[in-house]
Amino acid sequence: MRVDELIAKRKRPLFSVELWPPRSPASEERLLHALGELSHYTLDFASITYGAGGSTREFTHELVVNLHRNFGLVPVAHLVTAAHTRADLEYILARYVGEGIENLLALRGDPPLDAPSGLAAGELKNAVDLARLATESYGMCVGVAAHPEGHPDSKSYSVDMDFLAAKLEVADFAITQFFYTAEQFFRLRDELDRRGVVKPVIPGIMAPTSLSTLKRMAELSGTSIPERISTRLARFEDDPASFVAEGTQIAIELAAEVLEGEAVGIHVYTMNRAETTIAIYRSLFGDGN
Question: pTM of the prediction?
Answer without folding.
Answer: 0.94
